[in-house]
Amino acid sequence: MKLFAREDQSLSVQSNMRRLLVSFAMPAIVILAAILGLLTAYNRHYEGLLHNVTTASEFNQDFKETIDLKMYYYVIESQYSEGLPIGEVENAQLLARSLLRTTTQKESRLAISSVLDLCENLEEKIFQIETIRSYDERQAQLENNIYVLTALIQEYMYTYLYHEAVYLNTLQTQFSHQIFVEVVLVTVLIIALVLLSTRRSFRLGQSITGPIVNLCDRVEAISTGDLNAHTPVQSEMYEIQTLSVGVEQMVSRLNAQIRENTQKQATLRRTELALLQSQINPHFLYNTMDTIIWLIEADKTQEAVEMVSNLSDFFRHSLSKGRDVISLQEEGRHVCSYLQIQQVRYKDILHYTVNIAPELGEFLIPKLTLQPLVENALYHGIKMKRGLGHIYVVGRAEDGDVVLQVTDDGVGIPPQRLEELRQAMARGERVGFGLSTVHERIRLFFGPGYGLTLTSREGIGTTVTVRIPKRFLQEESTP
Questions:
Q1: What are 405's strand-pairing partners?
Q2: What is the dihedral of CA 388, 389, 393, 396, to 10 degrees?
Q3: How many CB atoms are located within 10 Å of the residue 434 CB?
Q4: 100, 127, 190, 437: most buried by Cβ count inside 10 Å?
Q5: The CATH number of the domain covering residues in 262-473
């Protein structure tokens, strides 16, 4: 079954939600932007107008008094005279020009233009007084020109303020009316958008919940054991369609996995049976019994008892109460029992060392993993060489795994035979000294990343390395 390919009419839930959001948000954003634009424009206009009124009010309050007083002191040549008030007049001209640039009403512009003209005339009259030396003429100019002009400037500024205040009030009334109209319009549009969005949301919800209910029924059927492939749930939503197809694919793969696991379990049982049968080797049992009889006849009762005890331990560990996996500590004791039995028989040629790190004792290992390797080392390595031989069984932790090595200093394996054994292990062929059987069992238990590796040098010895993951027994037994 191929993955579901998205068709033109099939949209994702995210796409449908996005379209629903856009259909509601875009009109709302446009309305909001328009309202904000109008409010911003009005606010700027209102603030500019209010600024003009405030500035003109402040100017009109002290302009006439300041100019008249300074000119009076100048004319009478008072000690309080600060000179001609040209700076104040120029500031008034700058202010009038600023107000003229920002004023839009005709009457207000006429008034402020008159203020500007009068300020220019006032400036001329001030300079004229400076050229007059006669006190009486100065007084006449002060009363007939300066006082009159400042009074006119003040009057026109009042006129400007009046027209601006009237316009400000009119603008506020217009704004209130505009706000009311906009509120009504926005309310109507929002109600329309809510109704439209509700309708679309209801349709979208139905298109999602219906298929999800069907999908839930299908999952419930799978949980009760219905692992037959069904037609996927049909939906307009891409995710739901894909999820349904994925569920059916999962069911198909689960069926295939169950069949594969059944085959693996059958293979594993056959392998375990073959290993168990190999351990109950009649020749090994006969030879061990002969050795026990010989020890008894030689009045070596204690050694005979120990050998019987080791033989009992050996078979008890081989059976392991029917368990497939045992602790590494138990597997180590099993190997020790086997080596102790064999050392009595081959005490002239066999020495051994078992050194498995104690902290690894609780990790699990498939039973009957190390003993076949030790047996190979004895029969195909040590016995084939002349003189004393040594078997080393070592266990250590390495990169999150447990690494076990069985090494002998026997005759080793010829290069051609070594390559044949490696190829047989890679292909799962049961040839050689039982290495393929052990290798296959470990891979069945832990996966293809684990198993045996074989190294050997002819005349030097052989090392078989076992790599398994760190797993505790309770982890294996947890469902």
A1: 394, 465
A2: 100
A3: 18
A4: 437
A5: 3.30.565.10
**Percent of the chain clearing pLDDT 90 (strictly above):** 12
Whole-prediction pTM? 0.45
C-alpha 153/C-alpha 158 separation (Å) is 9
Given a contact cutoff of 8 angstroms between Cβ atoms, the answer to whether 295 and 307 are in contact is: yes
- Topology match between the domains 13-208 and 262-473: no
φ/ψ (deg, to 5) at 349: -120, -5
Contacts of 31 (CB under 8 A, 6+ apart): 186, 189
Nearest by Cα to 455 from 419, 428, 425: 419
Element (H, E) at 406: strand 401-408
Roughly what angle, to the nearest 10 degrees, separates helices 301-319 and 282-297?
A: 160
| DSSP character at residue 129 | H
Classify the C-alpha dihedral 35-38-44-46 as positive or negative.
negative
Instruction: Please tell me the predicted confidence (pLDDT) of residue 17.
Output: 67
Residue with tokens 């009045």: 299
Query: Positive or negative CA dihedral for 155, 159, 164, 169?
Result: positive
Residue 2 pLDDT grade (very low, low, confident, very high; cuts 50, 70, 90): very low
What φ, ψ does residue 237 adopt, rounded to 5°?
-90, 125
Q: Per the structure block, which two tokens stand in for 404?
A: 């076990």
The domain locations on the chain are: 13-208, 262-473
| Residue 184: count of CB within 10 angstroms of its CB | 10
For 447: left if phi > 0, alpha if psi spans -120 to 50, otherwise beta; the answer is: left
Q: In terms of DSSP bridges, do strands 350-356 and 389-398 run parallel, antiparallel, or are they unpaired? A: parallel
Among 344, 242, 192, 336, smallest CA distance to 4 is for 242
Rounded Cα distance, 15 and 237, in Å = 9
Number of neighbouring beta carbons within 10 Å of residue 139: 15
Token pair recorded at residue 381: 């390595």
Q: Which of 157, 63, 52, 163 is nearest to 99 (CA)?
A: 52
Q: Maximum distance among all alpha carbons in the chain?
A: 165
Characterise 470 by phi-psi region: left (phi > 0), alpha (psi -120 to 50), beta (else): beta
Q: What percent of the chain has pLDDT over 70?
A: 77
Tell me yes or no: is domain 13-208 CATH 1.20.58: no
Residue 52: name the closest of 97, 117, 116, 110 by CA: 97
Three-class secondary structure of residue 171 per DSSP: helix
State CA 416 to chain mean position distance.
53
Rg (CA), the chain: 53
β-partners of residue 356 are 395
Q: How does residue 277 score in pLDDT terms, banded at 50, 70 and 90?
A: very low
Task: State the amino acid at position 206 in one-letter form.
Answer: Q
